[in-house]
Please model this.
Amino acid sequence: MSDDSRFYQRTIVKDELTSSILKENRSLRIYLPPGYNELLSYPVIYCQDGEQFFNFGRIATTITRGILDEGLEPAIVVGVDVNNANRTSEYAPEGELHDAYCRFFAEELIPYVESRYPIRNERNERIVAGDSLGGTVSLHLALDYPDLFCRVISLSGAFFDITRERLAIGDDLSWLELYMLIGLDENEVKTERGTFDFIRENRLTKEVLESKKAVLHYVEKPGKHLWGFWQVELSEALHYFLG
Model:
């Protein structure tokens, strides 16, 4: 039997970035993989809801196990914390702070992290990940900054009409690659903006993405709109891009 304590022998750096765009400090959690070496270079995963990805998604343990035991490519993980009072405003495409948040991500966060860590700067070496509205803003970041992002992990993304309208504008999305997970128990999800059928919304979004020739790995399986579901499935998403 393997010794699970090995999976906790990793480095997580707590950092804070002063954003002139958001006019506030934003907390970051930066995971450095086992054997981290500044002379090497690494792919990177940027996670919305950083605190939740680390605490509830257990991404550090999952990726460490993958690297040590499952042939996963070592990667750096950057968790970007969010103030829940502003989460919808920042993550929802119609939110008041959405454009500013996306600019912060592209213009401040990426340069800040890449100036401090040996991250490969090609767009296919950056993965942007999120759950629910975090999946939404991750997709919109790729659509708004296709020179920076082309790979998205969406865990039960909150994809509604406004996102599908945005997707319909573009012609060819063959440059875009998504890992898209939705739970079969997500047909009546209560959110602060109302109750939604996330299965229907994801299926409709899948159709639009496919019509635009996006590269899509689409997964439906039993699961609720909860971290208990996403945590278990996170390993498969990581293996899709880093395996």
Q: What stands out?
A: The first helix runs from residue 50 to 55. The CA atoms of residues 173 and 212 lie 5 Å apart. The two ends are 23 Å apart (CA to CA). The mean pLDDT is 94.
